[in-house]
Design a protein that fits this description.
Layout (H helix, E strand, L loop, with lengths): L1 E4 L4 E6 L6 E2 L4 E7 L2 E6 L4 E6 L6 E2 L4 E5 L1
C-alpha cells in the first residue's frame, strides 16, 4: 500500500476518485483549499484506490493520510 498524504494544511474541497478506481501517475485525486487557493494532490504512480481517509469539507493537516493505493 502506498499512502498519499496532504502536502499542507487545508480543507478538502473535492475528492475526484472513488475506492476501487484505477489511477495513473500524475492524476489529480483530491483538491485541497487553503488561503483561497486550490492545491491539487496528484499520485506519483499507477494504482488502484484501496481506501479513502478523508471526505469533502474535512480539514486536514500537513502529513495526514488522504488515501491509499494498492
Amino acid at each position: 500500500m502506498k499512502k498519499i498524504e496532504a502536502s499542507m494544511a487545508g480543507t478538502v474541497w473535492k475528492v475526484l476518485v472513488e475506492v476501487g478506481e484505477e489511477v495513473k501517475a500524475g492524476q489529480t485525486v483530491i483538491i485541497l483549499e487553503s488561503m483561497k487557493m486550490e492545491i491539487p494532490v496528484e499520485v506519483m504512480m499507477d494504482g488502484k484506490v484501496a481506501s479513502l481517509h478523508t471526505a469533502e469539507g474535512e480539514f486536514v493537516n500537513d502529513g495526514d493520510v488522504l488515501l491509499e493505493l494498492e
